[in-house]
């Protein structure tokens, strides 16, 4: 995976935004959420990341490839998919808290709350990324997921980003509309070729913007 910047990324993605990253397939495929963190966040920031389709090891590896030259927030991960989820590791270099499944929303909230603790106040901004909501929506109603998103968005700092990935081909229009009510906008992702990712940002107030960048995937 290339660490190339998203040079023309939509300016509409401002500090403090809540954005749904809508992809035609798994939103982890092009790692757009991790790319946004590596570019928009700084090395003094932290990011709470929930894995629902890829393991912690895969997530860390992708992120390291993206931040080799650019720097980026320090990750704190809630892992719902790795095998052997017997012990959490909140004190490792990248803290990890395991939960038994993506659909266990109460444990998800508790895990994120645990990882959000920063008693020394040593970090500037805190961001939030759920790499894919689709496995969560497979086991919980849209209304319940929406309420949880509102709760956990409060764990970011005022100028931090909340990013929620989604495979829009797996959900109907009513689901997308309901989730959009809890976001500032939707970042529509498309890939016409393996080397190019295109974006269209749709604000919930109707404003639109577009951008294109080239990238290389493993």
Query: What gross morphology would you assign?
Result: globular
- Residue stretches low in confidence (pLDDT < 50, at least 5 long) are 1-5, 214-218
Give a count of the beta strands, DSSP E runs of length 2 or more. 9
Mind describing the biggest β-sheet? 9 strands, mixed
What does this structure look like?
By secondary structure, the protein is an alpha/beta fold. The chain has one domain (18-214): Rossmann fold (3-Layer(aba) Sandwich), CATH 3.40.50. The chain is 26% helix and 26% strand. It is built from six helices and nine strands; from the N terminus they run βαβαββαβααβαβββ. The protein has helices spanning 32-40, 56-67, 105-115, 134-137, 142-153, 173-180; strands at 18-23, 46-51, 74-79, 96-98, 126-130, 162-167, 185-193, 196-203, 208-214. Strands 4-3-2-5-6-1-7-8-9 form a nine-stranded mixed β-sheet, with helices on both faces. Helix 1 (32-40) crosses helix 2 (56-67) and helix 3 packs parallel to helix 5. The model is unreliable at 1-5 and 214-218 (pLDDT under 50).
């Amino acid at each position: 995976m290339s660490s190339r910047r998203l040079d023309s990324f939509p300016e509409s993605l401002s500090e403090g935004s809540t954005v749904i990253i809508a992809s035609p397939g798994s939103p982890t495929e092009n790692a757009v959420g991790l790319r946004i963190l590596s570019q928009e966040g700084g090395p003094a920031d932290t990011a709470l990341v929930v894995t629902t389709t890829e393991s912690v090891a895969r997530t860390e590896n992708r992120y390291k490839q993206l931040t080799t030259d650019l720097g980026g927030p320090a990750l704190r991960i809630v892992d719902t998919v790795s095998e052997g989820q017997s012990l959490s590791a909140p004190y490792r270099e990248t803290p990890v808290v395991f939960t038994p499944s993506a659909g266990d929303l109460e444990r998800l909230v508790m895990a994120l709350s645990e990882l959000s603790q920063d008693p020394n106040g040593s970090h500037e901004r805190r961001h939030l990324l759920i790499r894919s909501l689709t496995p969560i929506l497979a086991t919980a109603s849209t209304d319940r997921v929406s309420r949880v998103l509102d709760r956990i968005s409060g764990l970011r700092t005022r100028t931090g980003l909340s990013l929620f990935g989604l495979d829009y081909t797996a959900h109907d229009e009513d689901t997308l509309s309901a989730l959009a009510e809890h976001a500032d906008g939707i970042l529509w992702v498309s890939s016409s070729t393996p080397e190019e990712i295109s974006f269209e940002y749709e604000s919930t107030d109707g404003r639109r913007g577009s951008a294109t960048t080239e990238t290389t995937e493993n």
